[in-house]
Design a protein that fits this description.
Layout lengths: L1 H20 L19 E4 L34 E8 L8 E7 L2 E2 L2 E5 L10 E6 L15 E2 L7 E12 L14 E5 L1
Antiparallel strand pairs: 1-2, 2-8, 3-7, 3-9, 4-5, 6-8
């Protein structure tokens, strides 16, 4: 008798568990796309720069900042960051955009945080799109028209620079890194 009660309780528990997971279907999502092998050769800085490079933002005096939100030399990003797409095969889409990713400054994707080895404080790195407008991390840049074919070169001109984020800046090393993805 005791075994029958335990068995019945276990069976009822299983049935309730299954019934609790049942749900009505509200719709269907179909995913479509195409996997292609056509992409451009990617270089940073020059046509032979490779796809990993260092961009020197220079030695910027603390005195060149005038308060939170100010940039060195009063420019949103003042160092050229050239991404060069060359030899884009025929069949490659004719536009491309770029998305930078990296560590957000205090959770804000508008600015790239300095790495933990940096000794400077109170500043972050700001990136600018090809039209010099602010380009947050994780957001695609404005699309750039590409010229495709063997021997072609497309230069995507971005900018990077320091921006003051705290009322007090401490001088020191100010380094960071970001990855980028090109979306064709």
């Amino acid at each position: 008798m005791k075994r029958n009660i335990i068995s019945a309780a276990l069976l009822a528990s299983c049935m309730m568990s299954v019934a609790g997971n049942a749900a009505a279907v509200d719709g269907t999502v179909n995913f479509t796309g195409e996997i292609g092998d056509a992409s451009c050769t990617v270089n940073i800085g020059s046509a032979t720069g490779g796809n990993n490079a260092t961009v020197n933002l220079g030695k910027v005096p603390v005195s060149s900042f005038r308060g939170v939100g100010s940039t060195a030399a009063d420019a949103v990003g003042n160092t050229a960051l050239k991404i060069i797409l060359s030899d884009c095969p025929t069949g490659t889409p004719t536009t491309a955009s770029l998305k930078f990713d990296g560590q957000y400054y205090e959770g804000d994707n508008n600015y790239l945080a300095l790495n933990s080895a940096s000794t400077a404080t109170g500043v972050a790195i700001i990136l600018s799109d090809t039209d010099s407008s602010h380009l947050p991390l994780g957001v695609r840049s404005k699309p750039v028209t590409l010229t495709v074919g063997t021997g072609t070169t497309n230069t995507l001109n971005y900018k990077a620079g320091y921006i003051q984020r705290k009322s007090t800046i401490t001088a020191g090393s100010a380094n960071s890194s970001a990855t980028f993805t090109i979306n064709y």
